[in-house]
Design a protein that fits this description.
Two copies of one chain form a homodimer. Chain A has about 750 residues and is of the alpha+beta class. In chain A, about 30% of the residues lie in helices and about 25% in strands. In chain A, a hairpin with a 2-residue loop joins strand 7 (about 505-510) and strand 8. The radius of gyration of chain A is 28 Å and the shape is elongated.
C-alpha cells in the first residue's frame, strides 16, 4: 500500500466522525473569510486590542507605501539589504491585503497589486540566488526556505485582493509568478519539498496555500501528499548534515504533520523550531479547514495541530522564553509573531480556551483576521483566565514511543526543571541524552548553551550556523549530562543518534512538593546503561525547593566520566581545595573539550564538596556525593574560538575515572538572595550539610542527606518495577524499608 | 587662629543672614517634631504613600516584636548572625519609635524600652569585638563605623520615647549606655572620630544626635568640632590605607561637611560613598536645624547639604544606579533607603522642589516623619514634576578647584558619558585620571569595573574589600584611560595621588547635539601631560549620537601606552587581522596586568581599524585612528584570581610604543539593535568609514571622519586659549579655518 492511501483513509475517517466548518465560498477564504470580514467591519472601534493592532499595522504599512516599492535583484545573505527587503515586502504585502479587506480602502489593494506585478515582471527571468551555501538555493533568497516564506505570506495577500483584481490580472499573476513559484519550490527542488523537515513543511504549506487561493487542486494535493516521483537518492544530505531522503518515508504536508509531532504535540526538533514550524502548520491548517473542510485537518492525529500550541506554550520559562533544547537561539519566546498567530488560531478554531486569552493579553497584539477578532472580543468581554504552566511529561516520536521531555515546576514557576530524554531531533538535535536545565523564575540557573548562531546578524557568518555549533554546542560536554571517555553520545554521529532514543522510566509529579522523573539511555555509549533520576523536593524546613539528581551508570567495563554543571553567574565559595593555574590550557582536543579552559582543578575531599555561586542576586549551592579520588574542574568556555563566537560561560565539572558501575549524586539548592540596594544577604548559606550514596544495585539506589539543623532524609529510587502501585522492600542499616511506588522519601531525623 | 573659630564665625554669619526654623521644644525633636507628629496624626488615612509605608513598616515591626528581642554577644563579621541581628535591631528600634509617635500605641514604646535596657545591661561590660581586622574595632560590630550606625538610629528611637520614659529610666540609659557609647566612639577611638572621612562623619553625627536628644551640649560640640586633643600621630593609616591624621586639618562634623564636598555638592570619594555619607549629614543636619537653628546648618557653605542631594541624583544612570566611580559596588541606586531619606529631607527642608517628588514616587516609599509626610502630601496633591537629568560639570575639592567630573547626556538619557578628572577621592580613590564610562539608557556600554568587594556577603572575605580591589580595581589599566609603561598613575601610590588633581580645560554642553568636555592631567606620569577631549555628537545622518575621544599625550621622552576600552557584551566583528592563542597567558606581572589574559593580538592595518560588539541586543562599533605599528589586544579579566573574585569582563586594548607626543583618536558609535524575538537586526553596521588625526600641535588637535555615505567631517579642539569667546585660526590642507570657541566641528562634504 502506498503511503498516500493510508493518509487518505485516515482523513476520510476523521471527516466522517467530526463536524467541520462549512466550506468557504469566494475570497478571501484562508485566514479571513467573507463572513469574518463582515464581523470585523461591524466590530471596528469596539474591540480595543484589535483596534490597537490595526492602528499599528496601518501606520506601518502607510509608512512603507510612502517609502515606495522596491524589489531589488537578489544578492545578499540574511541580514543584507536585498534579503531583508524581500522579507519585509512579503510581510507588508500580507498586512496591506488585510488592511484592504478590513478598511475597504483601495489604496492597499493597489499597493499589493503593484508590488505583485513588479515581482511578476522579474520572476520568470530570475536565476538562482547568487549565494551558493544552501542545498536548496532559492531565487529571491539564498535558500528555498525563505522563498517559501514569501509565497505563504503572499498567498494571503493575493487571497485578500483576489476578487478586486480583474480576471486578466489574475491570469497573468498566476501564469508568470505564482504557478512558476510553486513549481520552483516543489518539482524543481524536490530535495527541499519532499522531506520530513521544517523546511519542507514551509514548502508544502506555501504551495498548498497558493493552490487554495487559485483553487488549483493539483497544487493542493502536491502540498498535502508530496511529489510522487522526486528522483532523489536515499542517503543524500542537506548542508546542516540532515538526511534528505529516507527510503519508504511518506512526504508532503500530512506526513510532516504526522511524523515530527508526537501524540502529545511535541515537535521532535524542540520548541525553538516548533514555534517556527507551527506557523505554516497552523496557517495552512486553518486555511484547509475553511476551504477543504472535508479533510478534517483539525481532527487529524487526535487534534495534534491544536494540541501542539498548548504544548509549545508549556515549553517556555516564566518569562515566556522557549527552553533552548537542541539548536535554539535564546530569547525566542511566545511574544514572537508566529505565536501570536498560533494562540489566536488555537483560540478561534479550538473551543475558545479562556486561558489562551491571558497569553494574548501579554502578547499585546492580535492577528488582523477572523481569529484575531475572536481573541480581541474575548479579552474585551473579560473572559481571560490565567494560563498556568504545570509539570508535564511530553512524549517524543510519531507514536509517542521515542522518549520525551519532562518539565517539573514548583510554585508559580519559582523553580523549573527541564529534563530531556527525547529522540535525536532530526538535523537540529544535540547529543545530550538525559541532560537538564534549571530556571528560577525566568532566569537560567543551570543552562543549556543553545546554538552557536546569530540569526540574521550578517557579520557573524552571514547569520548562519557557525562552525562552533558543531564543534561545541552539539557536543555532549556542552550540556548538563554525562560524557564517557571524553566522547559525545553516539560518537556525535547523526546516523547513529537518529536510530535511538532514551526511555522514560517514570514520571511522578502529582505531589507538588515531591516531583520525580526518571529516564534511561542505553545506546549513547554501547555497553553502558545510564539512568538519571531527578527529584524536585520542597522540604518544609528549606526556604526553596531543591533538585536531587541521581545519575547512575552501569557498564561492562571501566570508563572515565565527566559530569558538568553549567552554572550561570559568579563563583562565591567552594569548600574543597583546588589549584588555580596562572596560564590556561584546554581540557582536551576534541568533542567540545578543545573549547574548555581549566581555570582550576581539585580533588574531592572526604566531606560532601560544596560549590556556591550567585546569579541575578540569588544564591545557589551544589552539594555532591563524591569519592575521594574524584576530580573537580572549574571550566571556562572560549578556547580555540578565534572568531569569538562563544560566550565565556562556566561550568563545574565532576570527573570520576576507572569505574564501571557508579552513581553521581548531587543536590542543586537555590537559596537566599542579595540586594545591592540594601546590601543585605538573605539566607546566603546552604542548608545541606551532607549527601551520601548509601545503597546502589540493579534494583535500588538510595541516598541520605543531612541538613544543618541535623535532620536526616533518605531518598530511594527503584531501578526496576516502577509501576505506581508496586510495593518495594529494602533492608538498609538493619532497617527494613517498605513502600509503594517508584520512589521513597522519608525524614529519618527521628531514627 | 584655631579652625574651630573660623567655623563658628561662618556659622554665626550664616545664621544672621538667613531665617531658620524655630527651635523645637521637648521631644521628639530630631526628624519628628511635636508639631510634625500632630500633622501626621491628623493626615493619617489621607496620604496614600505615607499610609502605605506605614502599613509596611508596622507589619515589619510587628513581626519583629512577635519574634522577640535578641541582643547576642557580638562575634561575627558582616553577613554573620550577630552582625546582621544588631544591624536589624537598630533599624527596627528606629521604626518602632516612629510607630509609637504616629500611632500613639505604647506597644512600640515598650518594645523600644525593653530592647534598650537589654543593651544597657550588657554594654558596659562588652569587650572589643573579637574580629580584629579594623583599625577602629567596635563593640557591637567589628568596626566602629557600624557601632556609629547603631547609635545614630537609636538616637531617633530614644528621641521618640524620651518623654514616655521615666526620669530614672532615662538616667540609667544615659549613664550606662548612651554616654559610654558616645565616649567609646569619640574619646576612646580618636583615630575613628577625628578625621575627615565618611567613617568620622558617621561617628560625629551619631555622637551629635545622641547629644541632641540628651540636650548634652558637650557631646554636640564634640560632634561638631571634633576632639581638641586626639593624641594621634600624623601619617597613621587605616586598614584601607587611608591617612588618619593630617597635620593642621580641621576635624568634626563641620569640617567633614566643609572638606570633602565641593561647592557643587560633589563628595570627593564618589557617589557610592556619597549616598552613604549623605545620610548622617542630612539626618544630623535636619536635627540640628530643629534643635540648634542658630547654627544655620542648611545655609552652610552656600547650602551645600541640600545641593548635594541634587548632585547625587545627577550622578545616576537612567535606571537610578550610581556611577561606580572609585570604590563602588554596582547596583547601588537612588532606591536605597538613605536616598529615600535624602530626597524627603531635601524636599521638606529646601523649598519643596516638585521634581524631587517624581523621584520619591519611583522610590515608592517615604520616611515616617515630618519630611515623609510633606512628600506624601505633595504627591497626593499631584505636585510631582519630572526630574530631568542634564549634562553637568561638577567641581571636586573643598573650594571646587581640584578638577571634577562631567556627565554628558543626550536625549532622554539615551546616551550618557561620565568623564572623571577629579582629585584622588581619599582612601577610596582609584588611579584613573581622565577615565570615562558610557551608558545607553541604563545599560553599561563601556564600563568602570567598580570595586572588588561583595558587601555583606560573608563567604567572600567577610564581605570586606578583597585583595583584588588593590591589585586590580584601583589600577589604571582597569579603567578606560591611558597607562604609561605598564604602571598606574602616581605609581598607584596614595601619598602621591592625593597631592594632585586633574584640571578641567573646558566644558561646553549648551548645544545638545555637540557637547564637548576637555581636561588635563599633568602629574600622573611626571614629565608627561595628558589631555583628553570627549565630544558627544549627534550627526543628523546618524541614528544615534557618537562619542569622539581624543587622547593627546605630550612627554619629554618616548614611552609605551595602553588604552583599553572595557566593552560589555559579545564580540561581533573586527576588520583587522589578529592571532588567537590556544593557551592563555597574562599580559603582564603587576599593576593589574597580571589579571589580564590575552585572547587575541593583532597589528593595526592601514585603514581605521573597527571593532564591533553587541550588548543587550544593541550594536556598538569602535573606530580607531591608529598607526600601522599599533598593536591591538583582546584582553579578558581573570588571570591570577584563585578565589574567583573577578568577573570575566573583556577589553580591547590599543598599544602604541616608543612615542613621546601622540594622539589616540577613537569613535565609540552606538548603532542599531537586534530582537531575538523577531530575529531582525536594525542598523547593524557602523556608519563610520574612516577616522584620521590630521593635525596635532601644542595649540590644536584636529581629526577628520568619513561616513559610509561619503560625507566628511572635521573636528578641531584648541589645546590652549579655550575661552568661549576666543577666536581661532588654523591652516589645514591649504584652507584657513576660523572659528570662535574651544572647538570647531564642520561638515566638509561639500569641499
Amino acid at each position: 500500500m502506498k503511503p498516500i492511501h493510508l493518509l487518505t483513509i485516515l482523513f476520510l475517517f476523521a471527516a466522517c466522525t467530526k463536524p467541520s466548518v462549512g466550506r468557504s465560498d469566494g475570497h478571501p477564504s484562508l485566514l479571513m473569510t467573507k463572513a469574518g470580514v463582515e464581523s470585523i467591519r461591524a466590530e471596528l472601534g469596539n474591540v480595543p486590542l484589535f483596534d490597537a493592532t490595526l492602528a499599528n499595522v496601518k501606520a506601518e504599512v502607510d509608512a512603507e507605501i510612502e517609502l515606495g516599492i522596491d524589489t531589488p535583484i537578489p544578492k545578499d545573505f540574511s541580514g543584507g539589504y536585498t534579503h531583508e527587503r524581500h522579507k519585509r515586502n512579503f510581510v507588508i504585502l500580507q498586512k496591506a491585503g488585510a488592511l484592504y479587506q478590513i478598511l475597504d480602502d483601495e489604496t492597499y489593494a493597489v499597493f499589493v497589486r503593484d508590488m505583485l506585478f513588479q515581482y511578476e515582471a522579474i520572476y520568470k527571468d530570475l536565476p538562482l540566488h547568487p549565494q551558493k551555501r544552501s542545498y536548496a538555493r532559492g531565487k529571491l533568497f539564498w535558500q528555498c526556505l525563505n522563498d517559501a516564506n514569501w509565497l505563504l505570506y503572499v498567498s494571503l495577500a493575493y487571497d485578500a485582493i483576489y476578487e478586486w483584481l480583474s480576471v486578466d490580472e489574475r491570469k497573468q499573476l498566476e501564469a508568470n509568478l505564482f504557478r512558476p513559484f510553486a513549481d520552483f519550490l516543489s518539482v524543481e527542488n524536490p530535495q527541499f519539498f519532499n522531506r520530513v523537515h521544517n523546511h519542507s513543511t514551509w514548502g508544502n504549506a506555501a504551495v498548498g496555500m497558493i493552490g487554495l487561493v487559485m483553487r488549483d487542486d493539483e497544487l493542493v494535493n502536491r502540498a498535502l501528499y508530496g511529489l510522487e516521483d522526486d528522483g532523489l537518492v536515499a542517503g543524500a544530505r542537506d548542508d546542516d548534515g540532515g538526511l534528505i531522503k529516507v527510503e519508504g518515508q511518506e512526504v508532503g504536508f500530512l506526513a510532516n504533520l504526522e511524523e515530527p509531532f508526537s501524540p502529545d504535540g511535541y515537535y521532535t526538533e524542540g520548541p525553538y523550531y516548533q514555534r517556527y514550524a507551527m506557523f505554516p502548520f497552523l496557517i495552512f491548517g486553518q486555511s484547509l479547514n475553511n476551504v477543504r473542510p472535508e479533510l478534517g485537518i483539525l481532527e487529524y492525529k487526535d487534534g495534534v495541530l491544536m494540541k501542539g500550541v498548548g504544548t509549545l506554550l508549556n515549553l517556555a520559562d516564566a518569562d515566556g522564553d522557549f527552553f533552548p533544547l537542541n539548536d535554539a537561539q535564546k530569547g525566542m519566546s511566545y511574544y514572537t509573531s508566529s505565536l501570536v498567530s498560533a494562540v489566536n488560531i488555537a483560540y478561534h478554531m479550538d473551543g475558545n480556551d479562556p486561558t489562551l486569552l491571558s497569553i494574548a493579553e501579554k502578547q499585546g497584539q492580535v492577528t488582523l483576521d477572523d481569529a484575531g477578532l475572536a481573541v480581541a472580543a474575548g479579552l474585551r468581554d473579560g473572559k481571560a483566565k490565567p494560563f498556568v504552566k504545570r509539570s508535564v511529561s511530553l512524549s517524543d516520536g510519531r507514536d509517542g514511543t521515542e522518549g520525551g521531555v519532562a518539565v517539573l515546576r514548583h510554585g508559580n514557576e519559582s523553580l523549573t526543571l527541564v529534563f530531556k530524554y527525547t529522540a535525536q531531533g532530526l538535523s537540529h538535535g544535540h547529543y545530550d541524552k538525559l541532560s537538564f536545565s534549571l530556571y528560577e523564575h525566568g532566569d537560567e540557573v543551570l543552562q543549556d548553551y543553545g546554538m552557536v548562531r546569530f540569526v540574521n546578524i550578517e557579520q557573524k557568518g552571514g547569520g548562519n550556523y557557525l562552525p562552533e555549533n558543531t564543534s561545541w554546542a552539539k557536543q555532549t560536554i556542552a550540556h548538563n549530562t554525562l560524557t564517557q571517555n571524553g566522547t559525545s553520545h553516539f560518537e556525535g554521529k547523526y546516523e547513529i543518534g537518529s536510530q535511538h532514543h532514551s526511555v522514560l522510566s517514570f514520571f511522578a509529579a502529582s505531589s507538588p512538593d515531591v516531583q520525580v522523573v526518571s529516564a534511561i539511555e542505553a545506546n549513547a555509549y554501547p555497553g553502558t546503561e545510564m539512568r538519571r533520576t531527578m527529584a524536585m523536593i520542597k522540604f518544609r524546613e528549606f526556604q526553596k525547593p531543591i533538585v536531587l539528581d541521581l545519575f547512575k551508570v552501569s557498564s561492562d567495563r571501566p570508563h572515565r566520566y565527566d559530569l558538568p554543571f553549567w552554572y550561570m553567574g559568579q563563583i562565591i565559595d567552594a569548600n574543597f581545595e583546588y589549584e588555580s593555574p596562572t596560564e590556561l590550557a584546554a581540557l582536551g582536543s576534541q568533542n567540545g573539550y578543545q573549547h574548555l579552559y581549566v581555570e582550576g582543578s581539585g580533588q574531592a575531599s572526604s566531606v560532601s564538596p560544596q560549590f556556591q555561586w550567585m546569579n541575578k542576586n540569588r544564591f545557589y549551592t551544589l552539594t555532591s556525593a563524591t569519592r575521594t579520588d574524584d576530580e573537580l574542574f572549574f571550566a571556562r568556555l572560549g578556547a580555540n574560538d578565534p572568531d569569538f563566537n562563544l560566550r565565556r560561560d562556566a561550568a563545574l565539572i565532576l570527573r570520576r575515572q576507572n569505574v564501571s558501575d557508579t552513581v553521581f549524586a548531587n543536590i542543586v539548592e537555590p537559596h537566599g538572595s542579595y540586594s545591592p540596594v540594601s546590601e543585605l544577604s538573605d539566607n546566603p548559606n546552604s542548608s545541606v550539610s551532607e549527601l551520601k550514596v548509601v545503597f546502589d544495585d540493579s534494583r535500588y539506589t538510595a541516598v541520605s542527606m543531612k541538613d544543618r539543623q541535623g535532620r536526616s532524609y533518605l531518598f530511594v529510587v527503584a531501578n526496576k518495577d516502577v509501576a505506581s502501585d508496586r510495593t518495594h522492600s529494602l533492608k538498609l542499616d538493619d532497617q527494613v524499608l517498605t513502600w509503594t511506588g517508584p520512589y521513597y522519601l522519608i525524614d529519618r531525623s527521628g531514627d
